[in-house]
């Protein structure tokens, strides 16, 4: 695209794969852009000279950022977020090593002073043959004063009992519209929200489809699909 300085766009959603170099160009020319939603963003092959130049004058007009298909390293995400220090809202969905609450806490406290809402849904594989964090240490990293009292950002940890285990960690309420469960194989750990059930907290405000695979209970595979437009509360 050819860009001019007169664009008054404040809200932009991009549904194709885009890289960081292109995003920097968009930020540079859309001086009034406040909300950016990316379907997929690749953080490989970054022009380091361009990125370094952008970091000298970050894009403070951006207050809301959503990336729906992350598939990269947390170091790349942190570097990218340095470009948008004025974020008030951040939503991240994807696969990768994003399960360290202590690391997120330190980064947000140092670089995203204005952030007041952080929604995420992270999926990762856990192989017992490799050294990696256990369930307890992951949950504990999201149980600090920063998460529970200062920000009041609560999470739930789920995992699929297979090999390797699949881990799903998400903020409450979950920020995706569709869920898939393996009957008998999905376990949900206690959340970091105190007395979740007794407080009638809805986890699935944003969910409209739940798929349940009951193949493990019979010789014939069977997948049930539930579609709902109402709030759904499920036990943990």
List keywords for this structure.
alpha/beta, 3-stranded mixed sheet, 11 strands, globular
Explain this structure.
The chain is of the alpha/beta class and about 240 residues long. It has a domain at about 10-175. About 20% of the residues lie in helices and about 30% in strands. It has six helices and eleven strands. It has helices at about 20-30, 50-55, 75-80, 100-110, 135-140, 145-150, and strands at about 10-20, 35-40, 65-70, 90-95, 115-125, 155-160, 165-170, 180, 185-190, 210-215, 225. The strands form two sheets. The chain has an eight-stranded mixed β-sheet with strand order 1-2-3-4-5-7-6-9. Helix 2 links the parallel strand 2 (about 35-40) and strand 3 (about 65-70). The longest helix has 11 residues, at about 100-110. It is globular, with a radius of gyration of 19 Å. The N and C termini lie far apart (about 50 Å). About 20% of the residues are buried. Mean pLDDT is about 80; it is low at about 215-235.
């Amino acid at each position: 695209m050819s860009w001019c300085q007169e664009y008054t766009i404040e809200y932009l959603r991009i549904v194709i794969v885009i890289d960081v170099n292109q995003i920097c160009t968009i930020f540079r020319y859309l001086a009034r852009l406040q909300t950016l939603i990316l379907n997929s963003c690749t953080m490989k092959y970054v022009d380091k000279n361009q990125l370094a130049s952008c970091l000298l004058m970050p894009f403070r007009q951006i207050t809301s950022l959503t990336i729906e298909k992350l598939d990269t390293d947390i170091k790349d995400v942190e570097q990218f977020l340095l470009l948008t220090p004025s974020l008030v809202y951040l939503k991240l969905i994807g696969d990768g090593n994003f399960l360290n609450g202590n690391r997120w806490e330190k980064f947000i406290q140092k670089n995203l002073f204005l952030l007041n809402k952080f929604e995420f849904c992270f999926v990762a594989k856990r192989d017992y043959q490799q050294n990696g964090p256990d369930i307890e240490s992951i949950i504990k990293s999201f149980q600090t004063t920063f998460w529970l009292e200062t920000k009041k950002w609560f999470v739930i940890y789920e995992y699929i009992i297979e090999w390797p285990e699949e881990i799903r960690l998400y903020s409450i309420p979950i920020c995706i519209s569709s869920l898939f469960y393996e009957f008998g194989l999905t376990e949900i750990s206690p959340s970091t929200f105190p007395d979740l059930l007794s407080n009638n907290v809805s986890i699935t405000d944003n969910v409209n489809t739940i798929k349940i695979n009951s193949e493990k209970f019979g010789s014939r595979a069977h997948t049930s699909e539930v579609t709902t437009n109402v709030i759904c509360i499920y036990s943990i």
